[in-house]
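Thought: the user wants the 3D structure for the chain below. I'll pass the sequence to the structure tool as-is, report back what it returns, then summarize two notable features.
Action: structure_tool
Action Input:
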Amino acid sequence: MMPRFILIWTMISPFFLCWGAKANDTVVVELKTRGNVNLPFLFSKNPNPIAVLLLFEGGPGMPSFPFQQRSGFMTKSLKIFVKHGFNVILLQAPDDQRDFRGGMHPNYRETKEHLMDVEKIISWVEAHIDLPLWLLGISLGTRSVANVAIKTTKKIKGIVLLSSSTNPPKQTKSVQNFGLELLKIPVLTIAHNNDICPGTPPLGAKIIIEKAVSSKKAVARIFFGGKQVGLNPCRPMTHHTFFGIEKKVVAVIAKFIKEQTK
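Observation:
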């Protein structure tokens, strides 16, 4: 069944923004950031949530609506995370960032402007939902998570990095060089043993953990199995996006978050 979507604008009351849909419905919320820039995101809620997850999709950061077989990991897993007991936000690129495959350039993800965008959403969460907040990113989305986790003054409970961008092109900074040694929050890194995307070698998961020396809990998990159907090893339907084992990966993430959120 195709999920229902409702476009909700910022002039609607904050109460309706957060609670206008029934449990497990998905709504589209659109905020204003950096002047008149539109910042849309999907919001889906569990009736008894224990935390809020802010998801950053890979590539250009433009989740496909409605969800498709070729959608990225975060997009396909949104409802799975909800079933595990979380309120979930899936970020979309702001409407002034559409030059890289229709969305955010990898280098934009480490800018102060991107930090402002994400903090706008975090402020929305703080105003409407009194729950711990976790940041989760895959592939290029790990750049967003690392940038925000290191630089924000907002309260973040922990982060999860999947298929991390540890071997990008020379002109782009690696995730492990974002200053992860400053993080004191829990860090979970996840990789697929057979990920052959050049920018996200599986060894990167362990490299990040070695960098996170101040983290209260830093764990790397390597997965096997699934399917390699997509022709581009850095795109969906591949080991890079844990195709075929999404539920198994989400279960491990959910367990880690619940253990660290007690």
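Final Answer: Structure generated. The beta strands are 7-8, 26-33, 37-44, 51-56, 86-91, 133-138, 158-162, 187-192, 218-223. Confidence is low (pLDDT under 50) at residues 1-24.
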